[in-house]
Please model this.
Amino acid sequence: MLGRRGLRALGRSIIRVRCFHGSAVFRSDLSSQRLDVEGYLQQRERGWRSTIEQPSVVARAIEVRLRPPGGNDGGAAVAGRPRIDVIAGATTPFEIAKSISGKLAKTTAVARVDGQLWDVSRPLETDCELELLPLDSPEGRQVFWHSSAHVLGLALEEVFPGAMLDDGPPLADGGFFYDVELPGGQAITTADLALIEAKMKEIVKAKHGFERREVSRECAREMFTGNRYKTAVLDRLPGDESITLYRCGELVDLCLGPHLPHTGLIQAFTLLKLSAVHWGGQLQYPAGHAQTPQLQRVHGIAFPKAKQLKEWTVLQEEAARRDHRRIGTQQKLWFFHPNSPGNAIFLPHGTRIRNRLIDFLKKAYFERGFDEVFFVYFPTQLLRLPPTFPSRLPRWDLSCPAV
Model:
């Protein structure tokens, strides 16, 4: 497993990075000013390149206990090699997967090291239990969509010079998004989605790797001085929490990771829609800004294969045809009004159906010994009134057993 390269690595140590601060690298007088976008990108790039190597883990032989992953084709092969000796600071989970099976290496999206998700390209540091998680695992899908979000972020910066990125996470129920603010009040239109997708295809074809670095808080703040959203994230992080950055192409972002080995694994994707959001769900700027920031959210979905995207699209079309909101509106059971989003206004036929359902539920409650009570509910958040009742009343929160 070690080979010549591994033996040579015994004399090396893995590195973490710290930023070199000085007038040649950063301009401290910019810390309280909003940089122009070109200056911000240059600042961010200088910060990334101005790192110096710092030994953190001495290269030595370590033992890795392999845990067979659920649902991975390489599970049997992993089970046949329960323990393996590697080099700390040199051997990565990807190299271990490749030594077991080429197919296993291709299908592994992320590793789990002693219970912590870990980049497959990140060297191991100590004796550990290692699990290689495939693309079709829950963790693998989340990492896949997270990496897809970074591809979208890079495309946004390249298609819209001056774009200021905020957050770009994966979604628990599938897909990803990125929040972005364009300069001068510009807005992304649906016609622009094709341009963004074309740029994303270029990024995927380039097979950009995801490079991880740990930096000091001061270094990160210097790098992201020109982006108020990123500095606000730094302000919210606990003082003792380490700061990690990831680079994909020209995009450098604050990120916990982990990520895919490279962008080439994201073979099929599409951008779904645009929406408007307020920064951080709040109606105010970060400290020092008086205006209300409204960002645009670009939503997307991605898969490792085009066939999977096609199947997902068919399922979405079928779900749209069965959408009760559309069907109920067509059957004149209810309608929706822009002044009351999400609140169905029942028409006579819809009200009759609703009343029949309520009568059915009341009967089921009475048959099971429940009594009916009534009190007036005030929407306190809208009316800004103090709560009339405690949030939890004795036994009133008990639901009826399944009928």
